[in-house]
Amino acid sequence: MWLAEMQQLKPRVYVEVDNGTPPNNLQTLKGRLEQNGYEVHLEKPSDVPNQEARILYYRDSDATEAEALLKQLPELGVLSSRDLPTKIKGTSDARPRHFDLRIGKNAFVEKH
User: Fold this and answer.
1) In the chain, where do the E strands start and end?
2) What are the pLDDT digits (tens) for 64-86?
3) What CATH number belongs to 12-103?
């Protein structure tokens, strides 16, 4: 029996931002993440601490990829407030390669 090679899921990032974050910052970030191969979903603004920028992930198997995403943040115009991504308990059906990116409105930086 021949089994087709399983396609790897495209990494998915849900971006959660602070109220008052300039929309152009979000659109720029979304475009850059998509250029880097991510499926991006922008969440409605919420109360994210102003200086916060952190990556959250749900599965142990995603730790390395979460760290790689964290290292990309400066190139994406975001200063990270954490040295490492944070593994959290989520729904039991969280799919592989799913990440949450929480960004406060003051975590964006101007690129020169």
Assistant:
1) 12-17, 39-42, 53-57, 86-87, 98-103
2) 999 999 999 999 999 988 889 99
3) 3.30.70
